[in-house]
């Protein structure tokens, strides 16, 4: 009987050791799986961050690659924050003095070129007008404003320009000169009256 009891004890001990060993193996397997998942997540996160960084860096190097000076943009918004929270005229004057008469900025991720040089404007708007027909159009414009010649684009712009070009021949402009001259005089007179009224109000105050 004592031998049987010893055998039972030995079998119980061996079974306990076996179950403990299996538990250790299972826990090691689970920890290895969790570590693999963590590394995978880390690698995917790194790839995503690098891709986003590379994408926006590539966009915001647009002017640098072309040798055009530009204020430093912020991620995602570009220079919109600076434009919205500053005096527009003062800001553009400051940028023009700092970056020259031709410089760039970003509306979000969209590059914009600002031209403050009369010769370049004459070249673009008169001599090479067909090379740059599109102008920036705001989403706030209504249907009629978007169909104005200045804001239309591509084929629609070409069609409208072809329709309107005969109206602005040199002969017709000469015939309209007197009317334009009268309108200019009326405008100057209107400004003068407003200035006189403002002066009188200031003197009374």
UniProtKB/TrEMBL annotation:
One Gene Ontology term of the molecular function aspect: heme binding
Keywords: Heme, Iron, Membrane, Metal-binding, Monooxygenase, Oxidoreductase, Transmembrane, Transmembrane helix
This protein's record includes keyword Oxidoreductase: yes
Annotated signal sequence range: none
Transmembrane segments: 42-63
InterPro entries: Cyt_P450, Cyt_P450_sf, Cytochrome_P450_3A
Annotated Gene3D superfamilies: Cytochrome P450
Pfam families: p450
Biased composition (Basic and acidic residues): 1-11
The keyword Iron-sulfur belongs to this UniProt entry's keyword annotation: no
Region (Disordered): 1-21
Superkingdom assignment: Eukaryota
Family membership: Belongs to the cytochrome P450 family.
Listed name of the protein: Cytochrome P450 3A5
Organism lineage: Eukaryota, Metazoa, Ecdysozoa, Arthropoda, Chelicerata
